[in-house]
Write a structure and sequence with these properties.
This is Fe2OG dioxygenase domain-containing protein. By secondary structure, the chain is α+β, with helices and mostly antiparallel strands. It is built from 10 helices and 11 strands. The protein has a 4-stranded mixed beta sheet with strand order 1-2-10-7. Strand 8 and strand 9 form a beta hairpin. Helix 4 packs across helix 7. It is globular and about 60 Å long.
């Protein structure tokens, strides 16, 4: 169990307090507000660029033509977008549903129960229940609470941080982490081959079988009385190798592509995969500086 030195109220507490105006720390700078539009209307648009959807069913097909077509599409999306929806990814839908239900069950607990798992960012203990501290230049906060912890490999886990409620949290998260680790290997292998490298090169670059870690962050976005003024997650790039996002079919994720913010569609039974800075760096090293995308994302949930 972890203790916290967090002084500001949780976003959930602010949301449930009945406030009509959000504190100024959560209001985005004016130049940023001009780019925040109605996310639900944006998600309905059919014109303009769209985040690609990659069907992984053929990624290990015995049919060479089918296999190569699938792999070429994945590499193309990685190079041109740096983000994509993955379908037929090999992780059962019922397991994903159980993972999402377990996360929701934790955040349904009273705040005082969740505080038993609070992190302590000031002392460098980042695992556990938390809220974003103002560590950016503008001093703005994000309208979210979260739960963050390392989930794979098992021997590096801190079991004291893992929620005891719901009772199946450890079981479903452990199974999900095992299958996700396998998916990560498949993706990294395809990206390596797409660069003309040996199959295991990128995985080796980002830590290999022994040192590549999986960390899970469950984001909780309480109802905001002024959603036009706040962001759930501010614009950022991911320092990770790969980011896999389980969504709940509610629009909110945006990607900065070719000079403008693009709202990701809600694709049923998909996992959103984002190529992180670590793999982009490996791309650059392996291709001697070719231009590959560094994808910037934000959440307007």
């Amino acid at each position: 169990m972890v203790t916290s030195s967090f002084l500001l109220p949780r976003v959930e507490s602010l949301s449930s307090s009945g406030i009509q105006s959000i504190p100024r720390e959560y209001i985005r700078p004016q130049e940023e507000l001009t780019s925040i539009s109605n996310i639900f209307e944006e998600e309905k648009k059919v014109e303009g660029p769209q985040v690609p959807t990659i069907d992984l069913e053929g990624i290990e097909s015995e049919d060479r033509v089918v296999r190569e077509k699938c792999r070429e599409e994945l590499v193309k999306a990685a190079k041109e977008w740096g983000v994509m929806h993955l379908v037929n990814h090999g992780i059962p839908d019922d397991l994903i549903d159980r993972v999402k239900k377990a996360g929701k069950a934790f955040f349904d607990l009273p705040i005082e129960e969740k505080e038993k798992y609070a992190n302590d960012q000031a002392s460098g203990n980042v695992q556990g229940y938390g809220s974003k501290l103002a560590n950016n230049a503008s001093g703005q906060l994000e309208w979210e609470d979260y739960f963050f912890h390392l989930i794979f490999p098992e021997d590096k886990r801190d079991s004291s941080v893992w929620p005891k409620t719901p009772s199946d949290y450890t079981e479903v998260t452990s199974e999900y982490s095992r299958l996700l680790r396998s998916l990560a290997t498949k993706v990294l292998s395809v990206l390596s081959l797409g660069l003309g490298l040996e199959e295991g090169r990128l995985e080796k670059e980002v830590g290999g079988l022994e040192e590549l870690l999986l960390q899970m962050k469950i984001n909780y976005y309480p109802k905001c009385p002024q959603p036009e003024l706040a962001l759930g997650v501010e614009a950022h790039t991911d320092v990770s190798a790969l980011t896999f996002i389980l969504h709940n079919m509610v629009p909110g994720l945006q990607l900065f592509h070719e000079g403008k913010w693009i709202t990701a569609k809600c694709v049923p039974n998909s996992i959103i995969m984002h190529i992180g800075d670590t793999v982009v760096g490996s791309f650059l090293r392996a291709t001697e500086g070719e231009n590959h995308p560094q994808t910037t994302g934000r959440s307007c949930d």
